[in-house]
Amino acid sequence: MKKGDILDIEITSSGMEGEGVARVDGMVVFVPLCMQGEKVRVMVREVNKKFARATVIKVLEPCVDRITPLCPIFYRCGCCDMQHIRYTRQLEIKKANVEACLYKALGRKIEVNDVAGDGIIFGYRNKIQVPLAKVNGKVVAGYYKGNTHTVVPFGERVREDLGACVMYESGMQDMLDAFLAYANEAGLDCYDERTHSGFLRHFVARRVGNKYAVVVVGNGKKLPLEKKLISALNDTGKEFSLYFDRNTKNTNVIMSPDISLIYGEARLEANICGVRANVSPLSFMQINDGVRDMIYNAVAESVRRNKDGVVIDAYSGAGVLTNVLAKSVERVYGIEIVPEAVADADELTKSCGNESRVKNICGDCAEELPPLAKKLRESGTSFSVVLDPPRKGCDEKVIEAIKTALPDRVYYVSCNPATLARDLARLDGAYDILSVSPYEMFPQTKHIETFVELLRK
């Protein structure tokens, strides 16, 4: 097999990236936008020692679960991965992927619950951050085509309640449309990564309750004609705050910390499982409000049911889950490495009246968790640990600290089945897996969130 070969193949399984998988003469071939049971004609675009990648030329025999995507630019845009698959089948694939990761890491079959969600499969995103580009002399917004930095401009809305991208709702699109009209009327240019010139880089918007935080990211010191943009956004009839983010670095990081308020409130209030949190444009929040609340409530319910007295919330961020848990326990320790997030967590703890129950610790979880867990264990205090790490999973020192201190229970929230499975394998000798519950945080994409409850052996 070599690059450029044209092959007719049968897709026999699904991969972790939502793609189809075939075997040709012993070689594994990954083919995006295909699914198990289909026969397809492909072109090989990459060949390695162990696998190859190919792109579809033609679907020869479609699977019964192949559907027409709601989004008209789905096959050109790199935003989502699975719109061509019937939704019930998407859930089956995601559950199977979690099962496969666990089996590979642990060497045995682990029972996995069906994927839970809130039933909203389009328009669920509370945040968009889209690159800007000039096409035919006009400023446009869209997502990058897969594996490129070429912007695929959004098309027209396909439903009144959705944006031009069907992953977010119409209010977000109203803000984007107002911004694009302003940008074109003002004659603004767009950033060019190759020359590090041009001004407009990204448009970012987040819905918090019924208000919107709008951020213009630019390669410059000041947003020109601010009043024109404020007027355009006001014409949408929606409440908003407007910020300008100065990102002059030659980097693919979307937002810099150099952000200033132009109009409206500096922070917007979000109600998350009864915790009222003030959110800034740089605050981390899950992009799916409904499913986030389902997961947080599941963790809190598990803590209540098991009558945990003391909980360590590792990777605690701005302290939202920490304060949700504070309703159910005597004491919560939150550990977070980002100083600004810890400052937000302290402010949130105070506003919730939880100063006597919550202690926020600023530091690397790998450094702070071991001595805290040791101190609690040596004092005879029974405690459990909540883990909610980034996609790379837990630092090995965190896992070792848990294995040494042996908290009664571990509650693990993961956005990456592969690193979740790896970490569960590391804990396998010390803990039993009681339940594995996937949650549909990201419909139409390959991603899945998982909540696992573990009990000390």
Describe the fold and architecture.
This protein has 457 residues and is an alpha/beta fold. The chain folds into 3 domains: 6-66, Nucleic acid-binding proteins (OB fold (Dihydrolipoamide Acetyltransferase, E2P)); 99-118 and 285-456, 3-Layer(aba) Sandwich (Rossmann fold), CATH 3.40.50; 127-279, OB fold (Dihydrolipoamide Acetyltransferase, E2P). The protein is 25% helix and 31% strand. The protein contains 9 helices and 22 strands. It has helices at 87-106, 170-185, 226-234, 289-305, 320-325, 339-351, 365-378, 396-405, 417-427; strands spanning 6-10, 13-14, 20-24, 27-31, 39-47, 51-61, 127-135, 138-144, 151-153, 200-208, 211-218, 239-246, 259-263, 268-272, 275-279, 310-314, 331-336, 358-362, 383-387, 409-414, 431-439, 449-456. The strands form 4 sheets. A 7-stranded mixed beta sheet has the order 9-8-7-10-11-12-13, covered by helices on one side. Strands 18-17-16-19-20-22-21 form a 7-stranded mixed beta sheet, sandwiched between helices. It has a 6-stranded mixed beta sheet with strand order 1-5-6-4-3-2, with no helix packed on it.
CATH class of the largest domain: Alpha Beta
Known CATH architecture of the largest domain: 3-Layer(aba) Sandwich
User: Largest sheet, order of strands side by side?
Assistant: 9-8-7-10-11-12-13
The CATH topology of the largest domain is what?
A: Rossmann fold
> Which class of secondary structure composition applies to the elements?
alpha/beta
Q: How many structural domains? A: 3
Radius of gyration: 24 Å
Number of strands: 22
Distance N to C terminus: 49 Å
User: What is the number of helices?
Assistant: 9
> Outline, from the CA principal axes?
globular
Q: Helical amount among residues, as a percent range?
A: 25-40%
Q: Which spans of ≥5 residues are poorly predicted at pLDDT below 50?
A: none
- What percent strand? 25-35%
The biggest sheet amounts to:
7 strands, mixed
Report the oligomer: single chain
CATH homologous superfamily descriptor of the largest domain: Vaccinia Virus protein VP39
Average pLDDT works out at 94
